[in-house]
Amino acid sequence: MCVCVGVALAQIEILRKRRTNKMLVAMVTIFVVCWLPLNLLLMANDYIGIVVAKWYYFLLAFLITHVIAMSSTIYNPFLYAWMNDNFMKEFQQVPCTKYGHIIPTFQIPSTIYTRYTRYAKPYVFLQK
Q: What backbone torsions phi and psi does residue 38 show, to the nearest 5 degrees?
């Protein structure tokens, strides 16, 4: 019985490491894909020089490749959310309407305490 549990735990650990490696490879791939165009453009500018710098669309190409490179930081949270099982389980528990809009689950408290009063005096909302 103990051997089966040990084998199952080892298989779970192997799957966890595989998912972690997939996420790491995906993050590195996204980073390389985002930064490669800007680096290629700048290397062409350094080695070819005047021909690229006088190119009519150089500034537009620089702007587009720079925006793509800077956007690489945006993709990591989405990638993590997509590949993390715990995040997906929690996100699926968010109450939604049939149209997919998120319903706020918080409620306005009946009293509010301000940090400016020495003795916290409640402010009561008008109840309907």
A: -65, -45
